[in-house]
Design goal:
The structure is a single chain. The protein is mostly helical and 115 residues long. It has one domain: 10k-s Protein, Hypothetical Protein A, Chain A. Helices cover 57% and strands 3% of the residues. The chain is built from 5 helices and 2 strands, in the order H-H-H-E-E-H-H. Strand 1 and strand 2 form a beta hairpin.
């Protein structure tokens, strides 16, 4: 429970950034690819875990994240979420300009739609 609260607190700080200005939101798709490449054997895995993990936890808790709804299966691994996010990002080069949290939410909503 304590770990969850710490993750939510960190996520809240990071996700509260104003995404209307790209200069304020440096956590875009290009960085997410760099952080999550070769997951989990990457020196920047902790950054990948922070964004992907907090997005996953918020989706699991509320089922809605930045207007996206996703219903991933119980027991989905972090690696599966990272793979889904990077795959979704690579489908459209314009998505690299999105914030990392929007990429994770979009990927999960597309891969695991609620029925």
């Amino acid at each position: 429970m304590a770990q969850f609260l710490v993750t939510v607190a960190l996520a809240s700080v990071l996700l509260a950034q104003d995404t209307s200005n790209k200069d304020v939101e440096p956590r875009h798709g290009k960085e997410l690819v760099k952080w999550c490449a070769n997951y989990p054997n990457n020196p920047q895995t902790s950054l990948c875990d922070l964004y992907v993990g907090s997005s996953q936890e918020l989706l699991e808790k509320d089922g809605d994240f930045f207007g996206k709804r996703a219903c991933p299966p119980a027991g989905i691994s972090r690696k599966q979420i990272v793979d889904a996010s990077l795959g979704w990002l690579r489908q459209d080069a314009a998505r690299q300009e999105l914030g990392a949290k929007d990429i994770v939410a979009g990927a999960l909503a597309e891969r695991y739609p609620c029925k």
